[in-house]
């Protein structure tokens, strides 16, 4: 990112700076991991599989410059000639020296490398003396303290003191900040980065305005994400949306009965003849879907018979409804459900068999039970999962 700031010259005239302030950003998937400018580099370590930051590491640019060193191969090439001049090694030798250097730095030199050095009349200690020293830069390390959603509330130093503190409302508006050490902390709601110039929060797919509690740019996947292109979770206390995408429950006519629109037969509310399935973001700007289907090899399969995974897409749906805002835990859980072996299929709904231990499921019950089970799993409600298993057979 390049930013030109206004400057006032000696005559009082305002103009843009000639040289922009350049900031580089590094991402791991959709998580902001690195921010670097001419003053420092800030790196963030996240809790595994989540958008919740765990560790903040800041290194001054001057310290980074001191870490620059020649590789062992470069050092030997620069002074390896008979007259003390430079020499060029073949690529194979450079590769062998690079491997040796990595083994020395890790203090795990292999027997193969030792034999190779011995055949050349050299020792590991001699090669180690040819290596440039490794400089460990001074770093400022802080531990993130976040709320239940993953919104940073404080930075704790290695001495156990609070180096930065902030308060936010439910929609991510900063109400108060205490920053005596002038630390740069740009992470906001899960997946979002504070943009100082605009005051908006950026999550790599679009911009979020905390004052409005909504996105100001449309959903990049259009109608695949629902009818409201700008919606953020209606309950931001318990729901998050780090990517601006969401989990959908879709319906379409039963393929065995045909039909157009949303249902087989009259396309009206209350008609129970429809196929139901779930769709979650695939991480590439689209959706992957899964559901329950009958085997379809004999006439009785539609009543009670072997089940199989249905072949569904977001585009083929008659209608899709938002059932869960972007939640990586729920999405990953459902992706696992999509890959599981399906139970036997039955056209009868669960209400006719209060305790069925998951022996048979129609498409509507399978999708409902899978979604609720994943939501309970991700919320830590293991008692609810057990009770649901007793009555639905889905764990």
Automatic annotation (TrEMBL):
Name the segments for region: Disordered: 291-310
Q: Which positions fall inside the RHS protein conserved region domain?
A: 141-177
InterPro entries this protein is in? RHS (IPR001826), Rhs_assc_core (IPR022385), T6SS_VgrG/RHS (IPR050708)
Annotated family: Belongs to the RHS family.
* UniProt-recorded name of the protein: RHS repeat protein
Q: Which organism is it from?
A: Escherichia coli
């Amino acid at each position: 990112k390049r930013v030109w700031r206004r400057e006032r010259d000696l005559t009082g005239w305002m103009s843009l700076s000639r040289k922009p302030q350049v900031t580089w950003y590094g991402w791991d998937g959709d998580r902001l991991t690195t921010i670097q400018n001419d003053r420092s580099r800030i790196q963030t370590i996240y809790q595994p599989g989540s958008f919740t930051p765990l560790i903040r590491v800041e290194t001054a640019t001057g310290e980074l410059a001191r870490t620059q060193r020649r590789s062992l191969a470069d050092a030997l090439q620069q002074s390896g000639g008979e007259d003390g001049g430079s020499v060029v090694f073949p690529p194979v030798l450079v590769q062998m020296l690079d491997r040796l250097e990595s083994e020395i730095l890790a203090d795990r030199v292999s027997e193969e490398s030792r034999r190779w050095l011995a055949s050349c009349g050299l020792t590991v200690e001699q090669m180690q003396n040819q290596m440039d020293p490794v400089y460990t830069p001074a770093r400022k390390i802080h531990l993130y303290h976040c709320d239940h959603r993953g919104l940073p509330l404080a930075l704790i130093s290695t001495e156990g003191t609070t180096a930065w503190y902030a308060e936010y409302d439910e929609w991510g508006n900063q109400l108060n900040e205490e920053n005596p050490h002038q630390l740069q902390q740009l992470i906001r709601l899960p997946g979002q980065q504070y943009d100082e110039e605009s005051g908006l929060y950026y999550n790599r797919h679009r911009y979020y305005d905390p004052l409005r509690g909504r996105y100001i740019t449309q959903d990049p996947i259009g109608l695949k994400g629902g009818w409201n292109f700008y919606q953020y979770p209606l309950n931001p206390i318990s729901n998050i949306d780090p990517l601006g995408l969401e989990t959908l429950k879709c319906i379409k006519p039963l393929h065995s009965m045909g039909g157009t629109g949303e249902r087989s037969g009259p396309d009206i509310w209350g008609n129970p003849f429809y196929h139901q399935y779930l769709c979650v973001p695939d991480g590439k700007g689209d959706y992957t879907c899964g559901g329950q289907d009958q085997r379809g090899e004999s006439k009785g399969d539609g009543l009670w018979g072997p089940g199989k995974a249905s072949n569904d897409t977001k585009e083929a749906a008659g209608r899709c409804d938002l059932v869960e805002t972007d939640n990586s835990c729920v999405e990953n859980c459902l992706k696992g459900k999509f890959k599981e072996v399906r139970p036997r299929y039955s056209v009868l709904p669960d209400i006719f068999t209060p305790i069925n231990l998951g022996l048979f499921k129609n498409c509507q019950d399978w999708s409902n039970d899978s979604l609720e089970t994943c939501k309970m799993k991700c919320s830590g409600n293991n008692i609810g999962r057990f009770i649901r298993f007793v009555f639905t057979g889905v764990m």
